[in-house]
Design goal:
It catalyses: Cleavage of hydrophobic, N-terminal signal or leader sequences from secreted and periplasmic proteins. The protein is an alpha+beta fold. The protein contains two helices and twelve strands, in the order H-E-E-E-E-E-E-E-E-E-H-E-E-E. The chain has helices at residues 2-35, 150-153, and strands spanning 37-41, 56-60, 74-77, 86-92, 97-101, 104-107, 110-111, 130-131, 136-140, 156-157, 161-170, 176-177. The strands form two sheets. Strands 1, 2, 3, 4, 9, 10, 11 and 12 form an eight-stranded antiparallel beta sheet that branches. The radius of gyration is 23 Å and the shape is elongated. The termini are far apart. The mean pLDDT is 90.
């Protein structure tokens, strides 16, 4: 009888160890997905030709804890500015002056070289020139004629920037880092 009791205890202990291990693994995976890296899907055409609808990206959620977003970063926006998550490119940072004139974008008085842009850049409802305040970012899609961005939404608050798109994982032929 003692042998049966030992074997039962051994099985109970084994099952408990497996349950604890699986629970820890699930919790770590959820924390990793929530706070470090996540997968995002491009939902619209606003970033063509850089990104197209249906592509899947790896989003870096933690590097902005150590540094601010930079000019040219492709960011994921999830905040009150829009009802849907957006993927856009950072054009202007806090304190920058953005202007749009004759289809050209000017940053602090200098014309931006933007080889990634598709279409012409038109003004939106935000009056330009526009000076960004503290913790404000001006973002635009690369497909300028078909992009809901800061020209219509206004500046994006820093807390609304969820992370930076760093890697394309789908489709396989486009697998790799994002060129900025």
């Amino acid at each position: 009888m003692k042998t049966e009791a030992r074997q039962t205890n051994r099985w109970v202990r084994e099952i408990r160890e497996w349950v604890v291990s699986l629970a820890v693994a699930v919790i770590v995976a959820l924390l990793f997905q929530t706070y470090v890296y996540a997968q995002s899907e491009v939902q619209n055409v606003s970033m063509q030709n850089t990104l197209v609808a249906g592509q899947r990206l790896i989003e870096d959620k933690w590097s902005y804890l150590f540094h601010e977003p930079r000019h040219g970063d492709i960011v994921i926006i999830n905040g009150p500015e829009s009802d849907v998550r957006l993927v856009k490119r950072v054009i202007a940072l806090p304190g920058d002056v953005i202007d749009i004139n004759n289809g050209e974008v000017f940053l602090n008085g200098e014309r931006l070289e933007e080889p990634y842009v598709k279409g012409q850049t038109f003004e939106g409802v935000v009056e330009v020139p526009f000076t960004l305040g503290a913790e404000q970012f001006f973002v635009m899609g690369d497909n300028r004629e078909h992009s809901l961005d800061s020209r219509a939404l206004g500046p994006i608050a820093k807390p609304s920037i969820e992370g930076r798109a760093v890697f394309r994982i789908w489709p396989i032929p486009k697998f790799g880092t994002l060129s900025e």
